[in-house]
Each structure stands twice: as C-alpha cells, then as structure tokens.
Amino acid sequence: MTSSCAGGRRARARRYLMCRPTYFDVRYAINPWMDPHRPVDTARACAQWEALRALYRDLGHTVELIEPLPGLPDMVYAANGGLVVGGRALGVLFRHPERRGEQAPYLRRLARLAPGGVYRPAFCNEGEGDFLPVGEMILAGTGFRSEPAAHAEAARVLGRPVHSLTLVDPRFYHLDTALCVLDDDLVAYLPAAFDDAARRRLATLFPDAIRVSEADAAVFGLNAVSDGRHVVLSAAAEGFAADLRTRGFEPIGVEFDELRRGGGGIKCATLEIRA
C-alpha cells in the first residue's frame, strides 16, 4: 500500500516487530538515562506501548509480536533484536551481559519472519540500534555498543554497502538515538553526536538532511519511525516536528516518556521487517 499527500511524500505499508513491556523495569544502569533508584510505572509503559501499536495499525502497517519473557526487562526495545534486509536477518550480540538473554528469543522469532534465513553474528552489534538502512545502503554506528568489525560483517551477510559513523556523546549511545531515517534519500541527525569524520560523511551523503537541535534529540526526538510520509516521534520534539512539516512530512507526536526511562524511545520499540 502506498499513499500520497499534498507535499508529495509517499507512505509505504511497513511490517514491524514489537514486544509488549510486560516485564519492563530499570534494574541496572547501562546507559546514562537509566536510574535503578527511580520506580518504574509498568502499567503506564504498557499503555504507551499499546497506543503506539494501535497507531501503527491505524496507519496501515502490520505489527508482528514477540512474546516478552520474565527477567528480560529491556526486551521491549525490539529494534535492538536484529536487522532484517531483503528478507535476510542478522542476529545480535549485545555488549552488556544484562541483555544477552534476549539474543536467542529474537533469533528464533526472526527465523520465522525472515524467509532468507538468519545469521548468527561473530561480532558485537545491537541490531537497528546501530544499523539503519537508507535506500540501498546501511548507516552503521559505533563508539559505544556495536564494534567496527560488525559493520564489515553486516555488509558481507546482507550484501549492502555499509557506512561507519562514530558516536561521541554517551547520551546518544546508539545510532538510532542520534539519527532518523525519513525516506530512501533523506535523514535527520544531531551533528554534535558524531565525530568530525562522521559529520563529513553525513554531509556528503545527505546534503539536504535535517539538522536537529540538541533539545529535540535529548527528548529522543530522533528515535522516531517514518513510513515515508508519517513520522511518529516524541511529542516533546516540537522543533523537529516543525522542520518535518516544512519538508512535507506529517509528524505524529506521541507520549513515550515512561519507556524512555530505560534509554529507549519509539524507534527502539520498533524493528522493521524488510522483505
């Protein structure tokens, strides 16, 4: 399904994998956003997640589910569970031991969703947290989680050119917290989250990119999901939303702040299954 709008932007029906935050909690701190001393409202997290799933369905997208498992409080961040391109899936190898229990469940689920098969990685990568396809290429983050050797591995396994980008601000520890793919030839990003080489590469690859403010990035505004027309993003990222309207997109702001307590946002909760 495709649809157009007055600004010429086209939405394409997507297929997403999500995990209900039934067991969501902040029991440890593996990123600057996590504070185990602050109680988590799991019911509120579930309500925000359900609203996001309903929105995707209303927009015409398909939502697949993976069963949440006790003892894996970060399993809701499905984007970290793998990368699926051209029907082939690359599994994950988490840097922090607290999350390694998620690897096998996501690998099994992706084996049923990816007709081209699933590859078990040899090097540390954290799925769509650090791998973001843009058209025929893949942008790949490193610096905090995924290791550079995983970028070459992804290029070989998935048959796509991979462009490495080094992150330098620990608040933006995954690529999907510092950069958002809006369409096959357009991205938005926070320049200060990257080193000089990465900024030069992004400027060359995407000269028309939207540069987002630190204030909008700090409310996980870039941890957003675009179908080519609609951009689902943090309701607090008002400046980014205004920029999107100027470019012909339809931003849809949603509340997702409870799940942000774990260091993840809307994109973190959404793994795209690309045929």
Automatic annotation (TrEMBL):
Gene3D superfamilies: L-arginine/glycine Amidinotransferase, Chain A. It comes from the Bacteria. Pfam families: DDAH_eukar. One of its GO terms (biological process) is L-arginine deiminase pathway. GO terms for molecular function: arginine deiminase activity. SUPFAM superfamilies: Pentein (SSF55909). PANTHER family: ARGININE DEIMINASE. NCBIfam families: DiMArgaseDdahMtb (NF045659). This is Amidinotransferase. It comes from Frankia alni (strain DSM 45986 / CECT 9034 / ACN14a).
